[in-house]
Amino acid sequence: MPWYVLITKPKYELKVADRLEKDGFEICCPTRVEIRQWSDRKKKVIVPLLPSMVLINIAEKDRAKVFTVPGAVRYLFWLGEPAIVPEKEVQVLKDIANQKQQVISTEKIDVGHEINLKEFGFAANKGTVKYISGNQCWVVLHNLGFVIKLKIK
After folding, report:
1. DSSP the chain
2. How far is CA 138 from CA 15, 37, 96, 121, 122, in A?
3. 73-105, pLDDT tens digit by residue?
4. How far is 25 from 12, CA to CA, in rounded Å?
5. Cα first-last separation, the chain
6. CA dihedral in degrees (14, 18, 64, 50; nearest 10)?
7. Displacement of CA 40 from its chain's centroid (Å)
8. pLDDT in tens, 32-64
9. Backbone CA torsion sign across 69, 25, 54, 100
């Protein structure tokens, strides 16, 4: 089954992911911890790595079932077809979530934007994580159009 990109309402990513998981779907919604400051305190907040997106592994015939979940808006389309994320990119996102890597930032890739990357051992067998400096690496997700910058422990 392919991995589709489900677009959610803003700030609904974790709620939609949780509900879909409870309904028996295989989902991928990696998160990162951010420190937010208010006038009286600082707090660690869990935020999704991919804003307004949840990846879902679902059969083509079952795609409409996700819209029973509040907050699910539509699927992402590319050239008139539903966008499909390769398994290796989903696996990189799962590796990031499982290894509790500290995500520094998430940046959108612009057309023609080139990043000078060297081989790095984090998930080198997948060919999607590249080394750039002593304490940072970039995970390039070409099909989603994002670069995820990680702090290496």
Report:
1. --EEEEEE-TT-HHHHHHHHHHTT-EEE--EEEEEEE-SS-EEEEEEESSTTEEEEE--GGGGGGGGGSTTEEEE-EETTEE-EE-HHHHHHHHHHHHHTPEEEEEEEPPTT-----EE-SSSGGGT-EEE-SSSEEEEEETTTTEEEEEE--
2. 28, 27, 12, 12, 10
3. 999 988 888 888 888 888 878 877 776 556 666
4. 17
5. 34
6. 30
7. 32
8. 888 889 889 999 988 888 889 999 999 989 899
9. positive
Which residues on adjacent β-strands are paired with residue 28? 55
| Domain boundaries 1-85, corresponding CATH code | 3.30.70.940
Query: What are the residue ranges spanned by the domains of the chain?
Result: 1-85, 86-153
Question: Are 35 and 85 in contact, with CB atoms under 8 Å apart?
Answer: no
The secondary structure of 133-153 as a DSSP string is SSSEEEEEETTTTEEEEEE--
Please name which of 55, 121, 125, 63 lies closest in space to residue 93, comparing C-alpha atoms: 55
- Which residues partner with 54 through β-bridges? 6
31-37 and 42-48: which strand pairing? antiparallel
Indicate whether this model's pTM tops 0.85.
no
Structure token pair of residue 49: 């790595």
